[in-house]
Amino acid sequence: xxxxxxxxxxxxxxxxxxxxxxxxxxxxxxxxxxxxxxxxxxxxxxxxxxxxxxxxxxxxxxxxxxxxxxxxxxxxxxxxxxxxxxxxxxxxxxxxxxxxxxxxxxxxxxxxxxxxxxxxxxxxxxxxxxxxxxxxxxxxxxxxxxxxxxxxxxxxxxxxxxxxxxxxxxxxxxxxx
Length: 177
Hints:
Strand content: under 5%
Largest sheet: 2 strands, antiparallel
Helix content: over 70%
Radius of gyration: 20 Å
């Protein structure tokens, strides 16, 4: 195959993968939006599950990460990506999961500082742990707007940089006796 044919083939593969990424992004966002709607249906005035937004930010970070890496990807890997939906979805889903883990690290206070969000904590009722857990999911929120922005930013970073959260976990585990 000539160099020109290779470039044309590579461009076609990039277009296929980009279209699949776009379709997956739209499908995921619609699906998660429907989930948010269902979770909030009939609960006027209550807060939504923040963890869903964290997952969405991590998912988008993962999709953007793949898109950024595509121009540097070799033709063999591009061909595989163009033929597989699951390979394209795996990195963004991992990004969403890493964003949730990072969110847990923030809430627990394991990871804290001026760059990271601060939260209003919900009191735990030892007599009713089920309700306490539901309240935790519903009412544990960053303290204010800037802290929400920090959470969304770091959730995106967790999805975008697939090594970020595993490195934090590894360093935290090394510090424990």
